[in-house]
Write a structure and sequence with these properties.
The structure is a homodimer. By secondary structure, the first copy, chain A, is an alpha+beta fold. Chain A has helices spanning about 1-10, 60-75, 95-110, 175-185, 200-210, 225-235, 235-245, 255-265; strands spanning about 20, 30, 40-45, 80-90, 115-125, 130-135, 155-160, 190-195, 210-215, 250-255, 280-285, 290-295, 300. Chain A has a 7-stranded mixed β-sheet. In chain A, strands 3-6-4-5 form a 4-stranded mixed β-sheet, with helices on one face. A two-stranded antiparallel sheet of chain A has the order 1-2.
Chain lengths: ~300, ~300
Amino acid sequence: MESEFLHWLRPRLSSHPQLRLGPGDDAAVLRLADRADVVITTDLISDGTDFHYPGCCPRRIGHKALAINLSDLAAMAATPLAVVVTLLLPRIGALGLAQELYLGMIPLAKRFGICIAGGDVNTWDGALAISVTAIGQTTSRDILRRDQARPGDAIIVTGAFGGSILKRHLDVEPRCREALYLNEHYQLHAGLDCSDGLAKDLWRLCQASSVGVILHQQQIPIHDDAQQLAQQTGKTAHEHALGDGEDFELILAVPQDTATRLISEQPLINQLGVPVKLTQIGECIATPEFWIEDESGKLTLQPPLGYEH
Amino acid sequence: MESEFLHWLRPRLSSHPQLRLGPGDDAAVLRLADRADVVITTDLISDGTDFHYPGCCPRRIGHKALAINLSDLAAMAATPLAVVVTLLLPRIGALGLAQELYLGMIPLAKRFGICIAGGDVNTWDGALAISVTAIGQTTSRDILRRDQARPGDAIIVTGAFGGSILKRHLDVEPRCREALYLNEHYQLHAGLDCSDGLAKDLWRLCQASSVGVILHQQQIPIHDDAQQLAQQTGKTAHEHALGDGEDFELILAVPQDTATRLISEQPLINQLGVPVKLTQIGECIATPEFWIEDESGKLTLQPPLGYEH
């Protein structure tokens, strides 16, 4: 089915001014911007772990496979450029499924101005898995690493957390533009995207930077979905906001004066014209410990929470 | 198991002068050579299609997953630079299997001077699959495409063909150095690597270039494995050489005078000091047809052979 699929796919792929050679040869060739470096990341999603197929729409699965990789480029404040896509498809209905997956990816690729530069299509007796590798390029502000947070830095997050599993975990909206805008206009020390849960990913940033953190529980922006999920699970909405995964929001460590400006200026508006709220949820400390401050001001030393692959 | 695996892996990975940021952040960062472009390719292998696990050594599976991607960079005459590796592992024994796969990849990466820049490790209830994305860079001679063969060009191949399934299909030796050497020192018009069978891949080169070909059956270098396999299958060794896949030799279209020089000079020696024979097996023609000339000089119009994914 590969040749039939490629025949269907090629006219649907956009050209790109930096794509010198697209699908059809042994490899694709991309030209970077002047003085840019290659930023590369890869992430796979599979049936049973990241989605259930059949049971959810393959276009949304395709969207997610691409979006989570763009989210990793956002976490680096890299400009997205291209992706290559590898499909591992159940034999029965493979062609139609491949088409639906791409119909979920193509609009997202267009919106983010990237090209689908190549890929690989495979069928087998197993279940569905999709592996995407995303290529970005550095900007003149260079990359945003996760290991440069300093004691005294404020922790800032985009959006709200928790309960993504209820309905939005497939509809990831990568924070590429937001990260690029913030990195260009403000002094950011460190950052990552939150995929495995706020507490766990924040702790990763701290560990990489050899700092600790005090997290103000009352300041964590709770997603409506976390409130709703809490009514079903018996856990609190705060627990969901801290422990659930797949929010794909940015977690940033910035100097406190930058944080004050960010919170007051609220400069982010997403592609759809909707404001993306920035919230300060904590501060970095010199001791490598994870503290949570509750509503009464009581500090509790926390073990990291979240999801282990 | 991901964090345990990464703890095991990191000290085993080599640094690389062009790897600015390796595994551990949301993405890796690579610096290209001056005026180089990014060459990117991806290829997945899966249990049941490309290997049988258990049943063959996971180090050889890891080697193959990496080698076939390097072979695609060879096909572009690109300098290999880095790979990212995505593992999809059966849950039981995942850690040990991941380690063995990497122990197959690391020596090959070292031999070819590339870095393993990042990756993704996943477990699931399904079977084993490995997806690799390889990044190369263009040289001052630029890339070798498959669509630039011209009528009158000679078809040159490296090595010998057929019967790889007998024992060597996992032990792929990518022709990176050979392709780079030939592209630097000779005028090559077009090329690709032979993964799906000599006839099928040669026909792909012809179709991409809008040419046809006359293939001289008696000149096709037959691998010993093809002879041996023919004794078991009842097919001829020539049929195996033409139709079997996974030889991962180069198929090149070059001007006839270059071909004459190549055949006489035989400039290729592989990493182990063993000569890699170049053989002329045919010529491109203007009409888009695939002809085979047998030992008696009789020409037969051929449908393309080979393996459909």
